[in-house]
Structures are given as C-alpha cells and as structure tokens.
Amino acid sequence: MGAEYIPVLLLGALAFAFAVFSVTLATLTGPKRYNRAKRDAYECGIDPTPQPMGGGHFSIKYYLTAMLFIIFDIEIVFLYPWAVSFGLMGVFALVEVILFIVTVFCVYLFVWRRGGLEWD
Amino acid sequence: MNELIASVFETPVINYRQLSPILIILGAAVISVLVEAFVPRANRRVVQLVLVFLALITAIIWAVTGAGQQAITGEGAIAVDGPGTFLQITILIVSVFVAMLMAENRLDPAGDAFTARANSLPGSEDEREYTNRGWTTTELWPLFLFSVGGMLLFVVANDLLILFVALEVMSLPLYLMAAIARRRRLLSQEAAMKYFLLGAFGSAFFLYGSAMAYGFAGSIRLGDIANAISALPGPNGLIIAAVALLSVGMFFKIAAVPFHMWAPDVYVGAPSPVTAFMASCVKIAGVGVLLRVMYVAFSGLAWDWRPLFWIVSIVTMLVATILALTQTDIKRMLAYSSISHAGFLLIAVIALNPQGIASTLIYLVVYATATVGAFGIVTLVRGPSGEATHLSQWAGLGKRSPLVAGGFAILLLSFAGIPLTAGFIGKFTVFGAGIAGGATPVVIVGAVASMIAAFFYVRVIVLMFFTDPAEDGPTVVTPSPFTGIAISVSVILTVIFGIFPQPLIELAEKASIFIR
Amino acid sequence: MNLTSSLIASGQESEAVEASVNYAMQASGAFTWMWLLIAFPLFGAAFLLLAGRRTDKWGHWLGVAMSLASFATAVVMFFAMIASPDADRSQTLHLWDWIAVGRFEVPIALHLDQLSMTFVLLITGVGSLIHIYAVGYMAEDPARRRFFAYLNLFVAAMLLLVLADSYLVLYFGWEGVGLASYLLISFFQYKPSAAVAGKKAFVVNRVGDIGMSIAIMLMFVTFGSVTFEGVLGNVGMASETANTWIGLMLLLAACGKSAQFPLQSWLLDAMEGPTPVSALIHAATMVTAGVYLIVRSGPIFEAAPTAATAVIVIGAITLMFGAIIGCAKDDIKKVLAGSTMSQIGYMMLAAGLGPIGYVFAIFHLVAHGCFKANMFLGAGSIMHGMNDQVDMRRFGALRFVMVGTFITFSAGWLAIMGIPPFAGFFSKDKIIEAAFMHGWIPGLVAAIGAGITAFYMTRLWTMTFTGKARWTEDNQHPHESPKIMLIPIAILAFLSVSIGFILAYGDAIINWLTPVTGYAEQETVLNHYIIEYGTLAMVIAGAVIAYLQYRRDVPITPPQHVSALTTAARRDLYGDAFNEAVFMRPGQWLTRSLVFLDSRVVDGAVNGVAALAGGLSGRLRRLQTGYVRSYGLWMLIGAVVLLGFLILVRV
Q: Can you tell me the distance from the alpha carbon of C279 to that of C286, in angstroms, rounded to the nearest whole number?
C-alpha cells in the first residue's frame, strides 16, 4: 500500500545526504582564512540598522506588524478558491464573500482607529 | 466537464433560522469591535453593555422560539438537535449572569475587575496614571461575545473541522480575558500565559486526532466516522489513535485529570468574573461536545474507550477531591471542585444511553448555576488589596454578613450534592444513568468521592458560621444590582431546582436525542 | 354463569383495593388548603429575614399574625375533620413529584389525619401563645425581628414534620427544626455559653440524624418506598431483622431529637436560649418529635419486639434519669429541663408499649405541652422580674410579689404531679396503668418516677414561692410581668387545669386517635385501684417531704458535703462526661479538623482515613509545581498512557 511512497522517501534521503555531504566536504577541504568581513551576516552590503538593543531583541512593533500582515494575508488567501468557483455558485457566493470582506474590513477599522498601523 | 464540477460544487444550503443565535452573537461581536474603534472611551462601557445584553437576550429569544426544530445544516457541518439547542440556551442564559458579574463596577474603588490598560507595565507609573483616569479594558466585551459565539457553534458542530474552529474561537478570547485582572496583574498574566501554552498543546492533540479520524474514515463528519466504524472488520490503529487524541483535547477543555493542571492556576489568576465564565460556560461547552463526539461518532467503539473513561472518571473524582481537601485558597478550592465535577459528568458520558444525555444536561445546568453564584460571592469578600481569597479570611463570615454567607453555604451544599439543593438532583440523575449504563463501580467511587467532597465543602461552612471572625478580616462589599441579581438568581435557582426539579428533568429528557 | 360470577368476584376484589387506597384518600374540600398551615409561618420567616431593619418596628407582630393565621387554619381543619365521617378523616394532599425518573418516584405530599391534627393544634396553639408572650419578653432585645423569624421558621418546619406523608419529607422537617433549634439556642451570640450550647445541640442532634438517614435508606432498600403508606402498609413483607434495624435506627433518631438517654445532655445546655424558646421548642413541641416518630412508625415496632423493648428501656431509663437530675439542680430552667426529659421518658415508655400505650403517649404529650409551656413561661416571667436570675436559692417568697405568676405556676405544678383533677392526673396515670399492663418493672419505674417528680417539682415550687426572701443585692425589687406575658400564661394555666378532663371525658382522645394508632387493653399485673391510689400516695409523700425540707432556710450557696448521688445528679449524672467521651470529643475533633487548615493537626491514631487523605493530598499537591513545562509533560504522559491503554484494551 505504501510502496508508491518509496521513491519520495528515497529522494528525501538523497537530498539530505547530499546536503550533509557537501557541507562536510567543504569544511574538510576548503581553505580557512577568516577575517571580519567574512564573519559578517553576509559577505557583502552594509551592517543591519538599527542594531537591536541588548543583543538580539527587536522592537515589539515588528511583531505586531508581522502579525497583522499574517492575519490579513491569510484572510485574503480565501479569495482565491472563491474566485475559482464564483461562477458556479452565483449570488450565494457574492453575498457570502461580501459578508466576509465586511468582517475583515471591520477588523481593519479597529486596527486603524486604535493606532495599530502607526509606528510611533 | 462543467457539469461534473457543478455536481461537486453545489450551492451550500445554510439554514439561517437554525443558526440565528450563533449569527446574532457573532454579529454583535463584530459590532462590538467597531464600538471599540469609534465610540469615545467615556461612553464605551455603556454602549458595550447595552449591546452585549441586547445581543444575549435576542439570541435567547431566537434560540428558545426555534427550539424543537431539528436540522442538519451547513452541508452537514452543523447539527441543531435537542442537546445542542438545550446547551446553547443554557450557555446563553448563564452568559447573561456572567456578563452581569463582569459589568460590576462598585466593588473595587478603582472601577471594575479589569485592568485600566492591559499593556501598561504592572506597578508602573503608567498603570497608576491610567487607573486614575478611570480607564478600563472594554475590549473585554468583544472578546466575551466571540467566546460565547464560539461556544454556541461548538455544541452544535457536527464535523471535526468546525469543532476545531469553534474550539479556537471559544478559547483564544479566553486566553486574553484571563490576562486582564486589575489586581495581582502578574499572577493574571502568568495564568493567561499558562492557559495559552497548554491550550495550544491541547488543541494540537485535538487537531491531530481529527487528522487521524479523517485518515481512517475519509471524512470529518461525525456521522460518516460512525458509519466507517460500524463497517470496520477488525482492529484499526488509526481510529484508536484518533479516539485517544480527540479525548485528550476534550479532557483538557473540561479539565479532567491528568489534563487538569492548568485549571487551579488559571482559575486563581484570572479575574473572578472570567473564572466564573471559564468554570461554567466552558465546562458546559466542553462536556457537551465530548458527549456528542463520543455518542455520535464513537459509540461503535464503546468497548474500547469505555474502560479508559472509567479510569479517567475515577481518577478525576478522587484526585480532585483529595487535592481539594488541603487547599487554603477559596478560588483554588472551587477550581478543584470544578475538576471533580468533570469526573462526575464523565459518569454520564460512560453511561452511553439517553439517560446519560439527559442527566448530563441536568448536571451542567445545576452546576453552572451554582458556579456563577459562588464566584460572584468570591468577588464580594474583599480586603484592602482586592479579593480576600484565603480561607482563613473567610472565618466568621456568617456572623458579619449572614445573607452572603448563607447564600454561599447553599451553593456549597449544592456542590456537595445535599438533598433539597439542585446539586443533589444532578448527582442523583447522573448516578442513575451510570447504574443503568452498567457503570456501577464508577458510581460507587463517585458516591465515595462526594462524601469526601462534602467534608471540604462543609469545612468552609463550619469556618464561616462556627468560628470567630479575624480582627482585621475582610469586608463584604455591597455590590451594584448587577452582581446582586446574578448571585440571588443563582442561589434561588439552586434551591428551586432542588425542590421542584421535575420540569428541568422533563425538559432535559425531551432534549436528549442527538441527530447526525 | 361462571363467567358472570368470576366477573363479580373480580369486581369485589377491585373494591377491596379501593378501600385500601382510601387509607390515604386525596384531600378534598377544606383540606386542599392544608399547605397554608406551613405556608403562613414560612412566609413570615422568609419575609422577616429578608426585609431588613425597616421592619424592626412591626416585624414581630407579623410573626405573631402568621402564627395565629396558621392556628386559625388549623382550627378550621379541625372542625372540618370533626364534621367528616371517620373514614374520611385521613387526607393526603399531593403537592408535586419531587423526583420521577423512570420507576423511581418520590412525591412530595402532606398527610393530615387525627394524629397529625392533634400535633398541628398543639404546635400552632401553644406556638401562637408563645409568640405573643415573646413580644413582651423580647421587648428590649435589638434583634427581636430575627428572633421572630426563627420562631416562625421553627413552626413551619415542625408543621412540615408532622404533616409529612413520607419519611423523606418528615426528614426535611426534622432537619428544619434542628436548624431552627440551633439558631434559637445560640440566639444570644454574645454569650459564649449560648454559642457552645448551640454547637452541642447541633452535634448531638447530628448523631441522632445519622440514625434517621440510615433508617430511610434501609426502608428504601427493604420496601422500595419511603412513604408512610408504602412502608407501614408493607411491614409484614419484610423480615423481622430488617424491621428491628429500622426500628432501632428510628429510635436513635428519636433519642437525639427528644433528648433521651444516651443523647440527653444537650437539652440541659439548651436552656441558654431565650425562655420562650425553651418553652416552645424544648418543652412543648420539638422534643416531642421523637415520640411522634415512634407512634407514627408503630407498625414497624409491632413487627419488631426487640426494637419495641428497646424503646421501653430507653424511656424508663430517661424517666428516672431526668427526675434524679431535676432533684439536684438549682437553676430553675434546668430543673424544668430535667423534668421535660423525664416526662418525655414517660411518653417514650408508653409509645414502646404498643397499642396499649400509643394513645396515652399522645395524650400525655398534649397535656405536658400545655403545663410545661405554662411553667417555662412562668419561669421566664420570674426571670423577667428578677433581673435574669435563675438560681432558685436566691428566690423565695415570690408568691407575694408575683401573684399572677404564682397562681398560674401552681396550676402547672399540680398538673405535672398528677393531682386530680389536673391534666397530668388523667394522662400520666393512664401511662402508669399501661406500664403495669406490660409488666412489673416498667410499671414500678413509672410509679416511682411519679413520686420523684412530685418531690423535685415541689422543691422548685417551695424554693421559689414560699419561705423567706433570699434576694441578692441586684434584685431587690422583683415585679410582676406585663399583661402581654401574663395572658398567654393564664391561658396555658387554664389548659393545665382543664385539658386532661376535656380529653379524657367520654374517652374522647381514645376515640379520636384509635383509627390511626389503634387501641387495645390488657389486664394489669396489679389491681387497677391499687395502682391509682398507690401512685397518688407516692406523689403526696414526695411532695410533702420536699415541702418540709425546703420550706425552711435554704443556704444561698449550695452545700458542698453531699451524698455521692447528689453530686452525680448535679453533674447531670455524668451524662456530659459520657457524651463528651462518646460524642463530643469526636464531634469537637471533627469541628476542629474542619476548621484547622493544616492537615498535620489531624491526630493520626484516631483518624487513619483523614490522615491518609490529608497526606495523600499533600503528596499529590507536589505535582502541581506551577511550571508550564511540567504541566505540559504531564499532559503528554497522560496522552501516551491513554493511547497505550486503548491499544492494550484492543489487544
């Protein structure tokens, strides 16, 4: 019954082995000449600004914005399947989606009025 | 080709009349969010209160007038049947009284039971400033309405996915509501954090169980799962795992041992009106769903899960009762009492007969009635730094305030299941159902547990009436009519259900058939 | 032809069934209002408790009115009952079904027959008089409204007790009067002795109540019913053992409530309550509930001779016990309390005798209710005039200053001694006679008891009313009580004189009660006249000895060098010591451990179970660490165990 999954498993194992293999090989054979620039997050570009205070804490506002993004993002995802099957369900679908969007819009209003979209 | 798709994608039939209580509450919740956005802070409380009570009462009227019409609706995702409607109405009515407790603002000199601003640092200058301005967390009300809406959906959900969604709609607001106590804020926030983390853990079990059930039956509909089970030739690991994991998720919600550990901490930390809400409405919804899932979907596997439920029920009753014996905090004691009631309720689930359903409904009504009153009274007994919950502070309360102490004594007697109180009727019918369902040993343990339990309830009564009050003991504050009415109704109903239980019993018996 | 006759036969059968149903016929006419009897005082109690201080000014009159309304209803019922034929005098009023689940039904119903009617009249009649009296007696008390609320509550509960149609409903009334009694004994909360006495009554009564609840459970197991009809009608179907155990448990319950040996000790302490309470609850009504219970359950005791003998023995012991205690006490109310115990002992004795005694138990109960209430109210009147002094050694010569009290009290005194033609003569004499029908021992105990009764009552009377005044400084000016107190006493005094004659005339009480309790006569072991005159001689001897002894100077402080018997009697015949060892210590331990929060206080030796539970609780509590991580771990363990268990079950 599970036989058809075996190739998938094999592929996964292969990918995993390849990753381990290449990292190990690079560590063993590569030249090791470290300098400051090389230890940076990326070997190019400028330092990330502003530096987080106390080594690693971001402002809580990042999280707030990120969460708002995710929430609205996920709500909007629902519109894709709706759009695909809209023609099949007619007025019903229209009414339902209007209800849905109105509800999301209410949340948007709340966030906006309560200052959730202001940075400072 | 088009025709083929059309046959798959038919316009869903949604019976809005049957769903009206849920829609009213959730609609009111959305409006309540807008109130938060647009109404000036000074008027918010009043507008929210009007909205909440209007919504609850309208929903009750719609639910009551619509009762008796059974229907599977929402493409089979929702089953509005006797137990569902009964529990919905119960949740709504209990919510009215919980909302009254939440609306109380005369007990604390600073305002109601909720913090001035949830994001101010506890003990900071900020917090003091906002408190002085007389602010309060009115966001409580949309959260409350969403949670109630979630519960209403939870008890009529007929497929595992809707169950899960309803579970989250019910739970997420609760995590926040637990965090916004005005007094002892750190404790409250800690409680909310614990509740959230463990709640997420519990939900994960539930979701995983749903996945297993889907893997087994190819459907998430409870009825389809039952059909798949009856067609099952031999043992199947998937469905066993599904039963176990779904049970864990629901045991967590009703706080059955060993998934109860969050309850004492959260009950103590959360603001008392919110604790009342959790202890009453969440328990109603949780047990209601446990009953539906076990009866509708898994009755075919009764031989498998019944022994398990026996053990959980016995362990829950005994552990909770024994732990309650040494509690020194009244809210903690009530928390353990609430856990032990979960054990008693499980007896009715085990029974697996119509009596089991009816007795669960009765037990939930009488238990929730008394719980709201008990936590309401807890909010009245106050010292200089908020509620005085240490048991020693309740000594001699009967001499200072006989009416309050007398009311509390009646509620405790009801919890203990003494005749002529509602609690006796609950225990009596549940035990009866248990015996009829062949669970006599569990009933015997239940009887023993209720005897031990009577000890610690009576201990509080003795403490209140037979000991001298402490010198600098707490005072009983006179509440506004909100809390006053909620407590009086709770006590009066507890007595009335104890003396005239027959209408309640008949109503519950009439409502005791699930549809699928 | 055959067919017809069989039809007729079956028709006759069904008639027979109907006749047996008639035993508890559905109430009709005036009797449909019998719930009012309870509703009036219940409403009064609820109103007075909830109404608050605004009603302080007139609340007590509402209490009196409710009691009188109940009495008026009782009188109407009484005449309605007299007007109906014998067969219709037993009426049942079905109120509602308390629980009806499947075949299990517990109806809540009231049952009024001649026996309950007698009690209802006594309770509401004497109760109303005492309500009126209390208006005067409690005039100074700031909590008078609360007092009347409790009195009304008591009347309602007591009426529920005697009107009950089943043992379960009776039990509710039983607990109700216990509660009211507790509240009233400890009414003077500022007095520690009153609080302690209240607790004592509470604990001792609980011991009795255990008997009651066990009896009800046994009935349910044996007969599958708890109604009087279902239990008493089917006594023959149960084994004698079952009947004996039920009977003994009922006796235990009766001992608790009626202060019978060995549960008698609370009654003496209960005298800490206000005097009207002592009169109403601890003399006239509540303490007779035990007698009512035994008489009502007559068929059970008739089917269980052992239990019936136990009742006789308990009655005889208490009869002597109370009388001896009464001889040694100096506190006027405690003498009366001892006497109450002793008189109830007589009633129990009579109730234990079976059909030859039931009627006289009730007869004596009614007579005693009148004359004892009369004397208690008289004692209250004396206390009222003497600045709450209760020590008889500090009374004396009160006949000149309290004439009304003296005359009325004397009526009670003559009645309790059984001097013809006062009430006690008719009732007590019949009990003694019935006791001699049963045998020598109960007969002699009852007769000697009558002599001792005469002794201690005369002692009380002499020390209080005659001799020289021995008033102490703080009570130099005794005065008569106000009219509102004297009038109820006067009515009761009139009844003390006349009720015996009224009820005995033409065997009225026998004819009245026989349909309910049954009645029988037997040959006495001794000639009828010898019993009557012998008893009378003993009574007169007791009275004369007491008069001669206490007429002279009585020292204000009780003498220390007295016989061992007197010392014992002063200490309630060590009843307290006994009860303390058997009931109070465990009771105290129970309350203490209920109150103490630390489980370590629990004494390991005595209390294995509680210690185990406490220790277990402490150990289990350690799992509740407060850390989310550990809670999460427990959930995980729980889930794994659940899953593992399910798989194991399947395998």
A: 10
Residue C440 has a pLDDT of: 82
Q: What is the pTM of this model?
A: 0.77
Give the pLDDT confidence score for residue C604 in this predicted structure. Answer: 33
Interface of A with B in 96-115 (CB under 8 A): 103, 106-107, 109-110, 112-114
Question: Tens digits of per-residue pLDDT, C425-479?
Answer: 888 888 888 888 888 888 888 888 888 888 888 888 888 887 777 777 666 677 7
Low-confidence ranges of chain B (pLDDT < 50): 1-7
Segments in chain C below pLDDT 50:
1-23, 594-609
Amino acid C598: pLDDT: 36
Q: Which residues of C touch B399 (CB under 8 A)?
A: 189
Does residue A68 form part of some domain? yes
Full residue range of the structural domain in which residue A60 is found: 3-113
CA distances from A67 to B51, B200, C321 (A): 29, 17, 85
Nearest-CA residue of chain B relative to A106? Answer: B34
| ipTM of this complex prediction, to 2 decimal places | 0.86
Interatomic CA distance for residues C183 and C185, integer angstroms: 6
Chains B and A are touching, with contact defined as 3 or more CB–CB pairs separated by less than 8 Å = yes
pLDDT the model gives residue C418: 81
Q: What is the pLDDT of residues B198-252, one digit of tens each?
A: 999 999 999 999 999 999 999 999 999 999 998 877 768 888 889 999 999 999 9
Better-predicted residue by pLDDT, A35 or A41: A35
- Report yes or no: B6 at the A interface, CB cutoff 8 Å: yes
Nearest CA in chain A to B28: A103
3-class DSSP state for residue C112? strand
Looking at CA atoms only, how far is residue C25 from chain B in angstroms? 24
Least CB–CB distance from C597: residue in B205, B328, B500: B328
Looking at residue C261, its pLDDT comes to: 79
Q: CB of C191 within 8 A of CB of C281?
A: no
For residue B27, give the chain A residue with the closest CA: A103
Residues of chain C positioned with their CB less than 8 A from the CB of B266: none
Tell me the one-letter amino acid at C462.
T
Instruction: Note whether B7 contacts A: Cβ–Cβ < 8 A.
Output: no
- Note the pLDDT of residue C611: 53
Type of residue found at C48: L
Give yes or no for a contact between B97 and B486, defined as CB atoms under 8 angstroms apart. Answer: yes
Q: Are the Cβ atoms of C635 and B500 closer than 8 angstroms? A: no
Q: Are C77 and C52 in contact (CB under 8 A)?
A: no
Q: Which helix (H) or strand (E) covers residue C247, if one does?
A: helix C240-258
Question: Alpha-carbon distance C488 to B230, whole Å?
Answer: 80
Q: What is the pLDDT of residue C12?
A: 38
A90 in contact with chain B, both atoms CB, cutoff 8 A? yes
* Closest-approach residue (CA) in chain A for B9: A88
C520, burial (CB in 10 Å: exposed 0-12, middle 13-18, buried 19+): middle
Phi, psi torsion values for B159, nearest 5 degrees:
-135, 160
Task: Give Cα separations from C541 to C451, C455, C467 (angstroms).
Answer: 7, 8, 20
Q: Does residue B9 belong to the interface with chain A, where contact is any CB pair within 8 Å?
A: yes
Q: Please check whether residue A118 lies inside any domain of the structure.
A: no
> Residue A119: inside a domain, yes or no?
no
Asked if residue A72 is part of any domain, the answer here is: yes
Distance, CA of C378 to CA of C566 (rounded, Å): 26
**Domain ranges for chain B:** 2-510
Number of structural domains (chain A) is 1
Q: Is B65 buried (19+), middle (13-18) or exposed (0-12) by CB count in 10 A?
A: exposed
Using CB atoms, which residue from B244, B429, B458 is nearest to C642? B244
The residue ranking higher by pLDDT, A14 or C521, is A14
CATH number of A70's domain: 1.20.58.1610
Average pLDDT over residues A51-62: 66
